[in-house]
Amino acid sequence: MLIGHHIILTGYGHWLPNDPRGSLSRDVFAPEIRCLGEAHYGRKVVQPSRGELRSFSRQAEGKLWFPLLWWDSAERRALMDAFEKVLRDNHLTCYACAVLSNHVHVLIRKHRTKAEEIIGFLKKAGRDALHEMKLVPQDHPVFNADRCHLYKNSVEEMRTCIRYIERNYQKHRLPKIPCDFISPYDDWPNHKKNRR
User: What is the 3-state secondary structure (H, E, C) of 5-28?
Assistant: First the structure.
């Protein structure tokens, strides 16, 4: 039973479909980067070395239409504020959110709005916010075109995902961005049963 969506938004050019680590893409559609390798669906069992990853990134960067951007504290705060507005306006319950220097993790409770639509709302709001504040070039897409979300089907999967998202700040050595739109997880949809 679907109870949540783990949505991952990646900054433009930072995790390509043929990334040597693997990806959630099955094909490489852009001819400019197809020469860098085939897509591998899912995480590869044997991960590339840092050197291999840097080499791939250098080759890929020269083929991208827009420059790679790294989000500093101002961009990260603007993205968080934009996401908060989307979540509140659409009455979405968010259990975890981490805005990092080149990607975002969000865990949202199942809702009548489809995950694909939520992803579209988040990307548009984030992109618009960075453009309006002149934090990125006006023509920059900000996010990759792909739509990455993982279904969560149990209370334990939700709790594991929350811990994973929360640890990302420490993993990437970034200060946590304070926000007040994250709801404490109450074992939904089992929370009513637990209160009896």
Answer: EEEEEEECCCCCCCCCCEECCCCC
